[in-house]
Write a structure and sequence with these properties.
about 220 residues; alpha/beta; TIM Barrel; eight-stranded parallel barrel; about 40% helix
Length: about 220
């Protein structure tokens, strides 16, 4: 079954809606320049509320960090109660190693060659927990770190997937196109943020879009099996 991560959640209501729609992972963004940024205390309230209401059915919680020091990442993970850390900036492989198996890298390669080089480099310190992706592949943008709505290349995704045990694909997916992408690439997981949001409101999720997105993923993978 293809893992679905709903990223950039900023309210408890939206987080609960995503969980009830069938999301396997929720992404909480701790990059201060992001319109989806959450203060750690606010994220802790969301996490505690979800676990109190859902128990073991609570989705895995992923913190999204950009060019943050390891100490701050670890501190935030402890405060919030995160399962994993997604490093989506210009972090080194050495920093990923310091995450001791609970971190995974998000890359935004410019082309196929760069994508394969990045994959080989970061896989040396991939997450040891099989519930986490080995690598996240996002669309390239010269200045922004994800959540752009731009679509990753299918050709690049296929090349990386051949080298990566658990590839999570992000970038420009919506309820209308995700079935095609899952069918073509067959990634381990998919990550969506802007594609399931209320129009013009970054971070605010549309419950109907989330349900449609997850249903499209499930249907596409079933048809492709």
């Amino acid at each position: 079954m293809t893992v679905v991560k709903i990223c950039g959640v900023i309210t408890f209501a939206d987080a609960l809606s995503a969980a009830e729609a069938g999301a396997d992972m929720l992404g909480l963004n701790f990059f201060k320049r992001s319109p989806r940024y959450l203060e750690p205390d606010a994220a802790r309230e969301i996490a505690a509320g979800l676990r109190a209401q859902l128990g073991s059915a609570c989705p895995l919680l992923v913190g999204v960090f950009v060019n943050e020091v390891v100490g701050r990442v670890s501190q935030t993970m402890e405060i919030v109660g995160l399962n994993f850390a997604q490093l989506s900036g210009d972090e080194s492989g050495e920093m990923l190693k310091e995450m001791r198996g609970v971190g995974f890298k998000g890359i935004r390669p410019r082309d196929r060659a760069e994508a394969l080089d990045d994959a080989a480099y970061y896989l040396k310190a991939q997450a040891t927990d099989s519930r986490a992706p080995s690598l996240l592949l996002d669309a390239h943008h010269p200045t922004l770190y994800g959540g752009t709505g731009e679509q990753a290349s299918v050709d690049i995704a296929l090349a990386v997937r051949a080298q990566v045990p658990r590839l999570m694909l992000a970038g420009g997916m919506t309820p209308d196109n995700v079935a095609y992408i899952v069918h073509e690439v067959q990634p381990w997981g998919v990550d969506v943020a802007s594609g399931v949001e209320v129009d013009g409101q970054p971070g605010r999720k549309d419950a109907a879009k989330m349900r449609a997105f997850i249903n499209a993923v499930r249907t596409a993978r079933k048809d492709g099996d």
